[in-house]
Design brief:
alpha+beta, about 400 residues, ten-stranded mixed β-sheet, Peroxisomal Thiolase, Chain A, domain 1, three-stranded mixed β-sheet
């Protein structure tokens, strides 16, 4: 009998700065409630020109390996899921491979399908282990992205940046995933895309929400069957979170699938049933997403970290659902079980201290970072200290069409 496979370690890493959504609302002449209540967001992480997909991925990978005492030599597969890569040919993963000091025999590649890339990496890693290719080794899957939208555009309050690293292994310490309950859905749609010539994405927002919900219906049906009842046995329901309110919309659809009919907005009983299900299964695990914003491929797994840091002991042995959606579109729905050892790692997973140390940008500084970031890929020289950065791995410019990265250590 095969041993269980799943997530053995996890960590989040983000930029050094953030923007308060109330400050952005004031600068744009918008009622703050439109962002804070309408979207469910409080702050969004903002990357400087010296913080890119590579630096965020390396930071998250280092944190996961160190916090869970994993030797880099144990990693036999590295997959980076991203929709904000730094090159049309060279994968982010190969930069990360070098900077993490992984073995040359480690299989390394990048996955791209909008926000679905990390889930694709997770399931591919599970298949790699199940096939016997791992030979006792583990896989490192990193979701790393920077969500950029233009200044003053409708998408501006749904930006964010960050990376989540997941170590996938047999006999995992955090979450086992049942391969028999992995369901998939794919359909070619134009709901969100970023052409080769653009640093910012284009989106049909209302259509994208509908595509997301249709994919939830399809992937769930493939995982557990059309008429299966799940919610009563689930301790938590985790969803892709482009903005917090979207996860709540998804859960409403999940509830409607189980009922076999739409909820009645005019019914007190229906409203109360939805509110109760949201408050117990969804809302508690959205606090990090509300503080960090949209991190594309990593947003689902950021919710997982939030759940594990808060409720791993209470939910030990309980089942949770995970739904990943990537525009374009591709999706996966699956079930996982919180392990009996997960609670031991709650403090190692918690990024609260790092979030508390972030620099709160004013609007002038935020807009400067955005404008400088638009030119960062072609800049020959970038100085991290000019953005208040002094400790970490940073992108410092492109010379002869080659990106350069430098490790900087603050004097102590």
């Amino acid at each position: 009998m095969n041993s269980p496979v799943g997530i053995d370690a996890a960590a989040f890493a983000g930029p050094h700065a953030c923007l308060d959504l109330a400050d952005l609302a004031a600068a744009r002449g918008v009622d703050p409630d439109k962002f804070v209540l309408g979207l469910g967001q409080r702050r969004m992480a903002i990357a400087s020109p010296c913080e890119d997909t590579v630096t965020l991925a390396v930071d998250a990978g280092r944190r996961a390996l160190a916090a869970f005492d994993i030797d880099p030599a144990e990693i036999g597969t590295l997959i980076v899921g991203t929709e904000t890569g730094v090159d049309h040919s060279k994968p982010v993963a190969v930069y990360v491979h070098e900077l993490l000091g992984l073995d040359a025999r480690c299989r390394t590649f990048e996955t791209k399908h909008a926000c679905y890339g990390a889930m694709a990496g997770l399931t591919a890693s599970m298949d790699w282990i199940a096939a016997g290719r791992a030979r006792g080794r583990k896989a490192l899957v990193i979701a790393s992205d920077i969500a950029r939208y233009g200044l003053g555009t409708p998408g501006e309050p749904t930006q964010g940046a960050g990376a989540v690293a997941l170590v996938v292994a047999d006999r995992p310490r955090l979450l086992t995933v049942d391969p028999a309950t992995i369901g998939d859905y794919t359909r070619q749609v134009m709901d969100f895309w970023r052409p080769l010539y653009s640093k910012v994405a284009f989106a049909d927002g209302h259509y994208s929400i509908q595509c997301y919900l249709d994919a939830l219906v399809g992937a769930r049906a493939d995982a557990v069957g059309e008429g299966a009842a799940l919610l009563d046995e689930l301790a938590a329901c985790l969803y892709h979170v482009p903005f917090v309110k979207m996860a709540k919309k998804a859960h409403q659809r999940h509830l409607e699938i189980e009922r076999g009919a739409p909820l009645d907005r005019d019914s007190d009983a229906d409203r109360q049933a939805l509110a109760a299900s949201l408050s117990s299964r969804v809302e508690p695990w959205l606090t990090l997403n509300a503080e960090i914003g949209n991190i594309y491929t990593g947003s689902l797994f950021l919710s997982l970290i939030d759940l594990l840091r808060q409720a791993a002991e209470r939910f030990s042995g309980r089942t949770v659902s995970l739904f990943s959606y990537g525009s374009g579109c591709g999706a996966t729905f699956c079930l996982g079980e919180i392990t009996g050892t997960a609670a031991q790692w709650a403090s190692a997973l918690d990024p609260s201290e790092d979030l508390a140390r972030r620099y709160r940008l004013n609007i002038e500084d935020y807009e400067r970072l955005v404008r400088d970031g638009e030119q960062a890929d072609t800049a020959e020289s970038l100085d991290p200290t000019s953005y208040g950065l002094s400790d970490g791995l940073f992108y410092v410019g492109t010379v002869d069409h080659q990106r350069r990265y430098v490790e900087s250590r603050a004097e102590r």
